[in-house]
Amino acid sequence: MKSWYAVHTKTHCEVSACASLDSHGVEVFLPMLRERKLLQGKHRLTTSPLFPRYLFAKFDVSSQLRAVTYARGVKSIVTFGGGPSMVDESIIDAIRSQLTDGAVALPEDRFSPGQVVRIQNGPLCGLEAVFEKKLDGTSRAVLLLKTISFQARVILESQCVANM
Predict the structure, then answer these.
(1) pLDDT at residue 157, rounded to an integer
(2) Other Cβ atoms closer than 10 A to 154
(3) CA neighbours within 13 Å on the CB side: how many for 58?
């Protein structure tokens, strides 16, 4: 029976691993991320893997494990407890539902300098901060953390921050 598995690829080999697995009759899913990055002094729209060095493959372990393991560009199959770890179909469907033209698009400039935001995840969850700037070429934001006794500058992933 075919199931979805996470496949760890060699560095920058996600696309070649997809082609190799496809040639072995394995269904492959490589979600991509579309974002604006500063490249050579200009903002350009780039597309890269949503999960660098990983892809999803649907195959039958009993008959295709060896072909997947030794496919060009594949480093290993993600395992837990000694065997390949299945990825639930609902996770694949949830990722696919977020795709537009085959890629997830990051929203442009969700915050403006000086805007008060709330941190949603991590050890600083629930704290208010002031958005200072987005770091070029990354999905990180510089925030001024406001507390009762001091102010501190923190750098967090933009997805951890929400409007107030």
Answers:
(1) 75
(2) 15
(3) 12
CA angle 38, 156, 154 (to 5 degrees): 110
Look at the chain and report how many structural domains it folds into: 2
Rounded Cα gap, residues 154 and 112, in angstroms: 16
Host H or E run for residue 64 = helix 61-69
CATH number at residue 70: 3.30.70.940
156: tokens are: 């967090």
| Stated pTM of the model | 0.67
Angle at 55 between CA 96 and CA 39, to 5 degrees: 85
Whether residue 19 is found in the same domain as residue 94:
yes
* pLDDT digit string, tens, across residues 99-154: 988 888 866 667 778 888 888 777 777 888 888 887 765 667 788 876 655 566 77
